Amino acid sequence: MVVQAFRLFFKDSGDPGAGVWLRCWVVATVLMFFSGFQSPVKGEEDFLKGPGLQQAYDAVMYQLELAFQERDYSLAGELIAQLDGFTRSDPAIDFHRARLMAATGEKESVLATLNDSVSGGFCQDQRIVKEELFDEWRKEAAFLRLVREAASEVRPHPEAPEEVEILAVDRVAELGEEHLYWSFADRVFRNSFKMMEIEPVSWSDEIDKSARELLDRWGKQGRLAGSSFEIYDNHDLGHSDLSKTKFPGLRRIVYRPELREQGLAHGLQLRFLHDAVVVGNSSMASVGNIFWRSQPRLAYANPSMAARLQAQYRNNHLYVYPEHHDYDPGHNGKAAKGEEAGGFGDVYPAMTPYLLISQGSSGSDQPILEALFLTLAAFKPEVKEYLIDHGILMPTLQMIFRWCYGGATAENYLTGEAHPPVFDGSLLDVESMMRKAQSMTRDSLPPLVKLNVLGEDRQSIFGNERLMDTNQAIARVFRSPLYARTMIVSAARSVDLEGAPLSFKWVILRGDESRIWIRPLNESGSVAEVVVAWHERFPVSPGSEMETNRVDLGVFADNGKCLSAPAFITTYFLDNEKRTYGQSQRLLTLDYTDTEKKGNYVDPMVEPQKGWRDDFIYDAEGNLSGWKRSHEGLVQRYTAQGRLITEMDGKGMPTQTKAVTYHLIQDPDQKQLPRVVTKVE
Q1: Strand partners of residue 628
Q2: What is the per-residue pLDDT across 243-262, written as a single tens digit (0 to 9) for each?
């Protein structure tokens, strides 16, 4: 079974500073099953059947898309029937059924079936808008209403097999097999909690006195939501557990033995989507292997996990993880001054607002956790409930957290100071966070930025550049032979809960301003052209010993009363390649064998090792005509399309070429880094 792999590959490394560690490469492969949106399978005797069937389900979905592309509607109908055999609750199935009806003339049922899809939780408004089969209905009011509803991202939570009762005595929710069902579209387990009324308790004396006095005063005035909405999820088997004496009234998830034995109770939490406000943590990481990493880097380096991160964010979940060794000054394990003992700098390939990362290792997440729970308690009841209902609680919490971080002000909220990839718990201003939460009213809440890419440079022939495409985080790996990558990005789908008009701010958080150009394309700034040129490794701020290979741009929506939490556009540059640009910013050399560059650390899950040098050739007009590849003493010629030239005429023009494919070679013992080899077809 899929989840049995979790039990086999989570084990204690013996590192006393870190505790129980995640062996992330194998788990990353296992977690490929766990990505997407919403729908349950119920009535199964074995709650693990869903994960085991996920690959088969995805394969049918893939074949269905091919059938539509080929206009083979008979086959499409058969495949939809197969999907119905898996589950009747995936709203995507009704979306495809509506497509089929539009294609085969059942026009009277198209909008009704599309309505079933959207009301069931199909939240891909752009997919509906771009579907050519719906052109006939595009201007109808009912169709436009469905598009608006599909943009919400807040999906209904179907009825669970059995609700998890939260015990009044110790306020724990014991989660077991009978409470779980598998969501094929979300690729996660889902469940429901019975949120029974529990008598409030007094705030502990262990909480900071000034924070406690604020909570007591607001509570007496009837302006305090308290902790009646949220549940705490410790996801590291109690290794870094939030203090029960400091937060005695907090509800907590407890995983029963059968879930712990399956490895489902610890590690990166992308395997459950609860129907409650959940704040949690996991002080774990992967150590002692070639794929060492913190848990956020496991998620950021795996494109299949991006949708689950976004789903958590919009479904009132927020988790905190330590960076461990992913954000420490140094380069390749050496300190800035050359000593052996040092870090690797900032090795995160992306940025998102979907989680929080603490500076340090085990336990460094605790100050952030405490700040989050105190801030959540400080909201007014009606405001908090409104935020929960609209799936914007965590975006609002992220805005407050960053606005008050390190003594931040309105001026530097739009700078990198307020939005680092990793946060130092000692720089939190908890009282300011609480006051800002308490001051919010329903008509002064932050908007929500939603991004989508309208266009960009064609994907590089040197590998896929797309790492993440979600509404609040777009991430690219710079593999292009161009000097600069261009994207047209829209924030026009951003929303304000009260319908206020929005303006937008596009800012450089980290990067060389002389190599980044942002050009708004309309008056409100909702659409912008973003150009990012090649960057060598650079300090995160002037004079800092911390270096990075990632450019961070932030996008903020402004409703006139409040700025939003950031959405991020990031570009990750590869530190193990030597680039030489010539006149007109043409790439002359791309060298993976350079003695100074080839040993530099790059996340091996993002970029495997390569062992060649390419020298590029241009025609008289400056257009790329191909390149020479030097590899292990052999020099070969390639066309501009990446085909190997096997014969040329007397003028040096190719007369015969062969296709070349690239294959990833992995060491089954995980002692050698993965590498890329070429194969001539």
Answers
A1: 615, 637
A2: 999 998 899 999 999 999 98
Of 356, 246, 241, 240, the C-alpha closest to 294 is 356
Does the pLDDT at position 10 exceed 50? no
Q: How far apart are CA 106 and CA 76, in angstroms?
A: 15
Q: Which residues are CB-contacts of 92 (< 8 A; sequence separation ≥ 6)?
A: 37, 39, 61, 117, 122, 185
Three-class secondary structure of residue 267 per DSSP? coil
Structure-model confidence comparison of residues 339 and 114, the more confident one: 114
Tokens at residue 289, please?
């292997």
Which tokens belong to 52?
Answer: 């085991």
Distances (CA, A) of 272 to 1, 29, 37, 99, 182: 17, 17, 12, 31, 9
Residue pLDDT, tens place only, 276-286: 899 999 999 99
What separation, in Å, do the N-terminal and C-terminal C-alpha atoms of the chain show?
Answer: 36
pLDDT confidence band for 13 (50 / 70 / 90): very low
- Rounded to whole angstroms, the Cα distance separating 609 from 674 reads 6
Decide: 345 and 380 in contact? Cβ < 8 Å.
no
Residue 489 β-bridge partners: 453, 528
Say how many C-beta atoms besides its own lie within 10 A of residue 654's C-beta. 17
Mean pLDDT value of segment 619-634: 92
Residue type at 679 in one-letter notation: K
Place of tokens 């700078």: 415
In angstroms, the CA 438 to CA 378 distance is 5
Residue with tokens 């609700």: 163
What does the alpha-carbon distance between residue 485 and residue 570 come to, in Å, rounded to a whole number? 12
How large is the C-alpha radius of gyration of the chain?
26
In 3-state terms, what secondary structure has residue 313?
helix
Is the pTM here over 0.70, yes or no? yes
Beta-carbon count within 10 A of 681 CB = 8
Distance of CA 185 to the CA centre of its chain: 17
C-alpha torsion sign, points 634, 637, 642, 644: negative
The CA angle 415-295-393, to the nearest 5 degrees, is: 55
- 494: tokens are 């951003």
Amino acid at 455: G
Task: Please provide the average confidence, as pLDDT, over all residues in the chain.
Answer: 88
Q: Say whether 244 sits in a helix, a strand or coil.
A: coil
- Could you count the other beta carbons within 10 Å of the beta carbon of residue 298? 24
**pLDDT above 80 (res 649):** yes
β-partners of residue 322 are: 358
Q: Compute the distance between CA of residue 431 and CA of residue 371 in angstroms, rounded to an integer.
A: 9
Q: Which amino acid is at 287?
A: V
CB 235 within 8 A of CB 280: yes
Per-residue model confidence (pLDDT) at position 156: 65
